[in-house]
Amino acid sequence: RYITASIDQKTFNMSLRMNYTISPNFTIQYWGQPFISKAQYSDFKYITNSLAKNYEERFELLEGAQVAYEAATSHYHIDEDMDGNVDYSIGDPDFNFIQFRSNLVARWEYIPGSELFLVWSQGLTNSGDPTESLIPSLTDNVFKNKANNIFLMKFTYRFIK
Length: 161
Hints:
Strand content: over 45%
Helix content: under 10%
Shape: elongated
């Protein structure tokens, strides 16, 4: 069986970039990107004839007593023939994906053509409750959890005068 559904998806993302020049030889740069995407599925249906000319003839809508949701296991139980026995079950496909990435770079040109970079890179990925709205989901699931931090130091030296 091929099961399809209607999807209500909302996505929020943006990139924030800031550059601060303290002197021509010393700069600080920041980049941050929150990303949230949540989806809720409804109107489950199974494919009957994927090649039918009319769209409505390509599937059979599962409705009423044919679909039962069990919150304890997060599964939908499908009884296609409505005989009182579950024919098959599918996991709840709803999701809420949350990610936040950022970089902070300090660049110092200590002599012309030679530079020192100090970099702090941070990333966090999580999943949340698909019934929550987008922005509270970001603050609850990203900023309260432990992030992956990477610290890097790079330097270059110009040998040619």
